[in-house]
Fold this sequence. Notes:
alpha/beta, about 950 residues, globular, CATH 2.40.50.140, 7-stranded parallel beta sheet, 21 strands, disordered C terminus, 6-stranded parallel beta sheet, Rossmann fold
Amino acid sequence: MPTALETLAKILKLEREQGYRNSAVIGGMSAFADHWQRDAHTQARRPEHHILVDEMIDLLHAYDRIESTDERHARVGYMLERITGRTPAPERYLSRLSQYIEDTPSPPPAPPGVETTETPVNVEAEGEQPRRKKEKSRKKEERAAPDQRTEPPTRAEKSRGAPAPQANTSNRRAPGRPGANEDDESAFERPGGFNSESSRLDDYIDFSSKPSKRDLPLPPKLARPPRQPRAEIDEAASLDLLYGLHNSVERVKGVGPKQQELLEKVGIRSINDLLFTFPTRYDDYTQMNPIARLTAKTLATVIGTVRHTEVRVGRTGRRDFFMRVDDGSGTIGVSCFGQPYLQRTLPIGQQVVLRGQTSLFQNQIQLTNPEIQPLDLEDLQAARIVPVYRLTEGLNNRQLRRIIEKALDYWEDRIPDFIPEATLERLDLADLGWALRQMHFPAGWDHQQHAKHRLVFDQLLMLQLTIMANRRQWQAIPAIPLPIEDSLLDALIGTMFPYPLTGAQRRSIEAIRADIERPVPMNRLLQGDVGSGKTAVAAAALAVAAFAGGQAAIMAPTSILAEQHYHGIGAAFARIPDEMLFDADGNGRRPVVRLLTGSVRGAEREAILDGLRSGGVDVLIGTQAVIQSGVEFSNLTLTIIDEQHRFGVEQRGALRGKGTNPHLLVMTATPIPRTFALTVHADLDLSIIDEMPPGRTPVRTRVIDPTQRVKAYDLIEEQVALGRQAFIVYPLVEASDRIDAESAVEGFAALRQVFHRARVGLLHGRMSPDEKDSIMAAFRDHAFDIMVTTSVAEVGVDIPNASVMVIEGANRFGLSQLHQFRGRVGRGGFQSYCLLVCDSELPDAVARLMILEKTHDGFVLAQKDFELRGAGDLLGTQQSGKGSLELLEGIDITFVEEAQREARTVYQVDPDMTDREHRLLAARIRGLQDSRSDVS
Length: 936
């Protein structure tokens, strides 16, 4: 039976494996039928074969319209039965036999003694009988059309991303168009063609007429990543290769001292850095969009020539760049807000690549703030998916791609795959070398997704294993138990706080109490939304340590926040009645609480240090001054870190080093999704305060555009007249030529004129810590009515009198960060307001901010942030150690859970990773730790 039917059988089996989702081929079964029918009829040798092809085409075209999985299951089963000859043709198709009999020449008479009846080939069977006729002719056809072959690809083809056997790549591309077959030399040899450096875009891109389906390239469909059987591993050689990855990038062929210097500027120092520095995006030259056929609200890549440019002045005085781009099929308007400098860099006649979201404005398709790159003719000629990297002056994408390709040519088949083969099989993950090739130079988007899946898994697994090992190592040294009786703990909670604690606060205290009464050091993360009462939980833990005879310390990121904790916790300790502190003979004393910041100097500082050494100070509250040299504790048993994401791993380790493996509690008011918290903080037990204290009035939140700013100012004036205070937050400290956003310095100058009767202050991150603390303390004490500031206002300083928060350029912040800003108001028991000024006209930007109007739940917002913006806003080097998790953007949370399970499995069966199958993985982690590259 013809090869075309065997190909169809493979497609049908793949569709069955994938759950009848019409995803076995790009475009679905109906589109496949359009490409398949010509080859099938060409290869058919008998009238019955033509009948079968007709029936298959009809069934494939109808398949897309079937909605029921059961019906699709029955349809696929029937088609396979027909192909294998186990089911006869329906009567309605047999009526066409006469037509094909008339058109088909009669076969020559068979030699005597030769059976002439053909039996259908059973493509389900493992061993297929060799064809008896025309084998030589078939081979000749295959050589003439190599894209139609069905043999499995070679190892080299797999490593370069060759389509899997089931992929349909038989379509031919039109000569002279991007994506033309390489064996079609006319596209390369004609005058003005691809090989002519002086050729214009119009010479070889013609969008004036709609191409047929056969003109469009069909990307390879890769159902599962190709994997090679793993040969016996030479462990010594593999270890040498792994550590060889950390050799200088200068070892790569073609990289000299000048290139090495340029690569170092973008963070590439070693071969490992080069291979694992992935594109920031890709330009897809296989799926270019003619302007004439663009629709609204789609992500489009447009290639064209700049025909007109101008700078327009907007309603608010902002200068916007506008240009019109032509690709032969039509023109499109492109607006770039606040980027007038583009008129200098994009002259008339420049050929550009635009990538962005289309929108409809005045009934015309346009692009707003797209990515803009000069056209590289070499990329266009290749008609492929082209990687785009982060660059520096003197280094272009073409140079970097060539360097990476040379490194891959050597390392793709040599890099040791450190993930156990059983794990790769279980999760259907690709080989490491193949994944690196496809991440940099994908043969199709399906290839790139398989590659990213593998590389993300590697990062998550190594991060988890490293953190678990750190926890095991740390907890191997005993801590001092801090036991307390139930009655005493209940009495302390009942007297220290003038309000009842929530159920979530009580549960968190109980979890901490259970941890610190054991000799195993506590390592717990306390998550709580803004205003949920984390400080009260911390105060209770500090009291337990003091009553157990130990010392405790709490470290905050700023002096103003440390001072706030000092007053709040000190007041809680002051409420403890004397009868709980002194026995009948008057023995005992009140716990001593002290504050240590950079501004504490002289005799006061020496007295605190003496008290810590002697044990006279029970609780120390401070900033990083707590971990400075000279600060020595007599018996530090409990350490607490507030706003823990503001501190690095070294700082947290330094605080623990002040005692003999003390218990550790870290707190954060920046909620992150639970599963992700368990991944990034795998060494921490998790407590969540998911209840808010009663009586807090929700902050009224509204999204406004810049034209409504006057109403916001009116609200501020009304509140200031009532004795309240306001924050106005800007995304930038000073104005920038590159970023169109309001700045705090410019805003401060203007707002002093607007609110000339009010006292306006300025606070931003470029000020010294002492300046920031002084200004914030003055605002707390109502020396200012309005504070103009930047993101420094995110840190949890309590200003109960503040009732208005206005955030300029709110679309430039993440939802979680905006929620933190909002948490700075609404603490005084009266109605408060948060106004989000959106300076983007994109509907998606407004829709994202509208989420804040609908919910005040920080955990819901964190999940939304994760879904919309990926992990980048939730993680940083300070939280995840010394490396980055750049690939985690947009990751599916179920995949995070899979990586967690695999890490726990490895750790439980082989915590030291000394088994043969884990030794390469352990070496990889050690190598990255030594190079301070990927994981901490």
